[in-house]
Amino acid sequence: MQLIVGLGNPGKKYQYTRHNIGYMAIENIISAQLNYKIKNKFNSIIYEVIIDNNKIILVKPETYMNNSGDAVYQIANFYKINSKDIFVLHDELDIPFGKIRIKIGGGNAGHNGLKSITNKIDNNYTRVRLGIGHPGKKEMVNGHVMGNFSEPEKDNLSQILNYLTNNVNEILNKKEKFSINFALTEVQNQEINPLRKILDLFK
Predict the structure, then answer these.
(1) Pairs from 137-140 (Cβ < 8 Å, separation ≥ 24)
(2) Is the pLDDT assigned to residue 194 strictly greater than 50?
(3) CB burial string 90-115: b at 16+ within 10 A, e below
(4) DSSP assignment, residue 32?
(5) Known catalytic membership, residue 144
(6) Which residue range forms the structural domain that includes residue 181?
């Protein structure tokens, strides 16, 4: 059993902000599943799904970003999931928009959601780092992170999330060894996930 956590903040105010790309990734993965169970527990929305015969727990903590570790700790303890089987999907300032990087452990780079999780469990979980790009100036960071995606970014966001959805099992199995060959220019004319749930929400 593995646990996938998408980081974000609850509420319509934050729904489409860059900081909530982890939430969006979870929603996109779920949109591709025909069968799943959903429950509200441990201040989280929890989905139980079977992907390639493996039981996967997907979570959107509703504790707000800075307290994400509280929910992750409780859920991991309840399902008896070791930190090495936890995957955290989160926004990453230091990676350009449209890029995805995977790593195990490492620093938190000022990300309060990661800091909270590390403080509550340990540092052996896998981070799926979803690039949102850096605005260029330190004083612009908060507005960039907490702001909505730009119109050009919205056009490409579903392609990024669909790529993640279609490769989620490979990521779970290979972790850092997973080879990411995704480029927006290669898939702009492809319909990867016919549901396109996330993109439709922006229209």
Answers:
(1) none
(2) no
(3) bbbbebebbbbebeeeeebeebbbbb
(4) T
(5) no
(6) 2-202
Which string of b and e fits 63-87 if b means at least 16 CB within 10 Å? bbbebbbbbbbbbbeebebebebbb
Q: Which of 19, 90, 134, 144 is catalytic?
A: 19
**Amino acid letter at 137?**
K
Which two structure tokens, joined as six digits, stand for 171?
């990521």
Asked whether 172 and 87 are in contact (CB, 8 A), the reply is yes
Q: Is the backbone of residue 144 left (phi > 0), alpha (psi -120 to 50) or beta?
A: alpha
Using alpha carbons, select from 90, 96, 80 the residue that is nearest to residue 3.
80
| Site of tokens 């999780």 | 117
Task: Report the C-alpha gap between 23 and 188 in whole angstroms.
Answer: 23
The total number of structural domains in the chain stands at: 1
The neighbouring-strand residues paired with 38 are: 47
Going by C-beta distance under 8 Å and a sequence separation of 6 or more, which residues neighbour residue 78?
A: 41, 42
Give first-to-last CA distance, the chain, whole Å: 36
Q: What is the pLDDT of residues 134-181, one digit of tens each?
A: 999 999 999 999 999 998 898 899 999 999 999 999 999 999 999 888
CATH number for 106: 3.40.50.1470
Q: Which amino acid is at 25?
A: A
